[in-house]
Structure formats: structure tokens, C-alpha cells
């Protein structure tokens, strides 16, 4: 996937360079002599806004997740759920440890009068240990399912926002950039993260008021 994203960026860069090349060749052909091309007909990449040449922008996903109020709220909910699961598992582990230590002391003191009683206590500890492992897997799965559910909510919310945000079709392409994986280099003018987060938060605040 990273290779594919990098390839996409390379294709975009090639498209922009191709645009400049075609523009320059067209100007030269129309003049018939490259030396007589007027300065006004030459595209100067240093003086032209990137979005006016190829309407593309990108959003820094890491910053968006840190600054978007809905994302922060989901993260807090997930952390609380994680802490609750951790406490439940810790309590179960402590109970098992306590019961195991009590069994050890009783065994060393010769407290089991019959082999059947000893076997029964051992079976109880074994069952408790198995239940503890099942609990750990259950809590981990519930937490993962909750995280996936929240990710879907967040993705759908952002996707719905961009349909409104780019309703005027000013951008042909909006990239997501996380940890600089998708965009190796970009002019800061193409970074619309701040504007996007600001409008996302306004939209979210308005939705909260209507509830």
C-alpha cells in the first residue's frame, strides 16, 4: 500500500511537470522561434500558485486527529473503555493469584485430607485460569471492535464533510498524509489541514447543539 501511495504521488508530480512541458512547447511552436517568445507567455513555476496549475491539496491526518474535537472525544471514550477493561482483567488476575497462593499454602501444610479434594481444588484453579485467558481475549476483541467502529464513524464523518467542503470543485484531488508516508514533499500552500479542522470543529459544534 505504501508503494502504491508513493506511485500515486509520482504520477501526480509527473502530471504537473507534463503540464509545464506542454505549455512551454505550445508557446514555442506558436512563436516559431524559442528565442522570440515573449516573457508574458512563459509560465514561471516560482510565481504561480500550485493550486492554480493543478488543483490539489493535502491534509495532515496526524494533526487532524489531534485537533478535531470529534476525534478527541472518540479517543477519550476509547481510553476510558480500555482502562475499564484493564481493571476488570487485573481484578480477575489478582483473584486467581490469591486463590493459587492459598492453594499452595494449604497443600504445603497438608490441608487436603483426601486425593479427591486435592484434585477438585486443582481442577477449580485450572478452570479459573482458562476463564481468565478467555476473559483477556474477550476484552481485547471488544476493545478492537469498538476501535474499528469508531474509525468507521470518523472516516464517514470526514468523508461527508469533504463532499460539502469541495462542493465548488476547486480541488480535483485531496490527499491524506500520515507520518509523511503519502506525501514526500509538498509546498506548505497545499496544506489545508488548519482550514479543514477549523470547519470540521464548527460543523461538529453545530451538530452537538442540535442534539
Write a brief structural summary:
Helix content is 71%, strand content 5%.
Plain-language structure description:
The protein has 211 residues and is mostly helical. The protein has 2 domains: 1-45; 49-210, no CATH class. It contains 6 helices and 2 strands, in the order ααβαααβα. The protein has helices at 2-31, 50-53, 61-67, 69-108, 115-165, 193-210, and strands at residues 56-60, 173-177. It has a two-stranded parallel ribbon with strand order 1-2. Helix 3 (61-67) packs parallel to helix 6 and helix 4 (69-108) packs antiparallel against helix 5 (115-165). The longest helix has 51 residues, at 115-165.
User: What is the distance, rounded to the nearest whole angstrom, between the alpha carbons of the first and last residues?
Assistant: 39 Å
Number of folding domains? 2
What integer value in Å does the Rg equal?
A: 31 Å
The chain-level mean pLDDT equals 79
Strand proportion, as a percent range, falls in under 5%
Number of separate helices: 6
- Determine the fraction of residues in helical runs and give it as a percent range: over 70%
Arrangement of strands in the largest sheet: 1-2
Name the descriptors.
71% helix, 211 residues, 6 helices, disordered N terminus, mainly alpha, elongated
Helix/strand layout:
Blueprint (H helix, E strand, L loop, with lengths): L1 H30 L18 H4 L2 E5 H7 L1 H40 L6 H51 L7 E5 L15 H18 L1
Parallel strand pairs: 1-2
Helix pairs in contact: 3-6, 4-5
Amino acid at each position: 500500500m505504501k508503494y502504491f501511495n508513493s506511485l500515486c504521488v509520482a504520477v501526480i508530480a509527473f502530471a504537473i511537470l507534463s503540464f509545464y512541458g506542454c505549455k512551454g512547447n505550445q508557446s514555442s511552436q506558436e512563436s516559431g522561434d524559442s528565442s522570440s517568445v515573449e516573457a508574458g507567455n512563459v509560465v514561471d513555476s516560482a510565481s504561480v500558485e500550485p493550486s492554480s496549475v493543478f488543483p490539489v491539496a493535502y491534509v495532515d491526518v496526524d494533526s487532524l486527529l489531534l485537533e478535531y474535537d470529534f476525534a478527541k472525544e472518540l479517543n477519550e471514550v476509547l481510553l476510558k473503555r480500555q482502562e475499564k477493561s484493564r481493571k476488570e482483567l487485573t481484578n480477575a488476575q489478582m483473584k486467581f493469584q490469591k486463590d493459587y497462593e492459598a492453594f499452595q499454602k494449604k497443600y504445603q501444610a497438608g490441608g487436603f485430607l483426601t486425593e479427591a479434594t486435592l484434585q477438585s481444588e486443582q481442577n477449580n484453579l485450572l478452570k479459573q485460569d482458562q476463564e481468565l485467558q478467555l476473559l483477556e481475549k474477550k476484552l481485547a476483541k471488544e476493545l478492537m471492535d469498538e476501535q474499528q467502529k469508531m474509525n468507521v464513524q470518523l472516516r464517514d464523518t470526514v468523508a461527508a464533510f469533504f463532499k460539502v467542503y469541495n462542493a465548488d470543485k476547486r480541488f480535483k484531488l485531496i490527499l491524506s498524509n500520515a507520518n509523511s508516508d503519502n506525501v514526500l514533499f509538498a509546498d506548505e500552500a497545499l496544506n489545508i489541514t488548519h482550514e479543514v479542522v477549523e470547519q470540521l470543529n464548527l460543523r461538529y459544534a453545530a451538530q452537538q447543539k442540535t442534539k
